[in-house]
Amino acid sequence: MNELDKYYRELGLEPGASLEEVNQAYKDLAFIWHPDRIPKDNARLVSKAQDKLKQINEARDRLRSNPGKAHSSDRPSSGYQTNKSSAGYTYSNPPHSGDRTHAHAQGQRRSHKPHNPDLTGADLRGQDLREKDLSGRNLSHANLSQADLSDGFLHKINLSGANLQGANLFRANLLQANLTYANLQNVNLIGADLSGADLTGADLRGAKIGTKDRLFVKLIGTKLTGAIMPDGRIHE
């Protein structure tokens, strides 16, 4: 089996799947297998989840660094394809056969891998950020009011003091996110996962979290000390 085919299979995809399909498959599997979702008293399952997450992380990274690359048996290759908007890699020469050249190309990919920029205080009002992977980014004190972050992968994102008033966080993955003292007024949190997130002092007045009788937000291990809840009461 071709090496890239193996990574497609790891994400449950057919070889040659689009970058969009790769990103979506990764988010789905990361949501299912993230260790924070596993009971801590089940050490065997936690270990299995950690290993699985490493595998799908590697698969996503390898496939992202080869956007649109054809399988040699499917169609001829004229060189590495470039997708600056999603991967940021640039190649000037087509790949050649041989382990040494392959290793050199792998080194190129690693050296050109973009870093996550610091977005502290960024103005992202009303931006369409649906399904974006912003995990680990620093957006403290950023203005994200009315932004669409639905189905976003926001694991460990720093949104401390950020303005998210009226933002759409439908089904967003906010595992272990830092939302301390964030403005979450009138935010749509239906289907969002806030497991392990820190919402200390956050303002949730008017936020959509479910119906009168049913909660549609995951709050396992969420810190809510001093947070203003949707109904206006302060959580103790």
TrEMBL record:
Q: Where is this region: Disordered?
A: 58-124
UniProt-listed PROSITE patterns:
DNAJ_2
Source organism's superkingdom?
Bacteria
> Can the keyword Repeat be found in this entry's annotation?
yes
Q: Where is the composition biased (Polar residues)?
A: 75-95
* Annotated Pfam families: DnaJ (PF00226), Pentapeptide (PF00805)
Query: Keywords for this entry?
Result: Repeat
SMART domains named among the record's database cross-references: DnaJ (SM00271)
Would I find Manganese among this entry's keywords? no
Which InterPro entries is this protein grouped with?
Answer: 5peptide_repeat, DnaJ_domain, J_dom_sf
Q: Which residues form the J domain?
A: 6-68
Which PANTHER family did the record assign?
THYLAKOID LUMENAL 17.4 KDA PROTEIN, CHLOROPLASTIC
**Protein name, entry field:** Pentapeptide repeat-containing protein
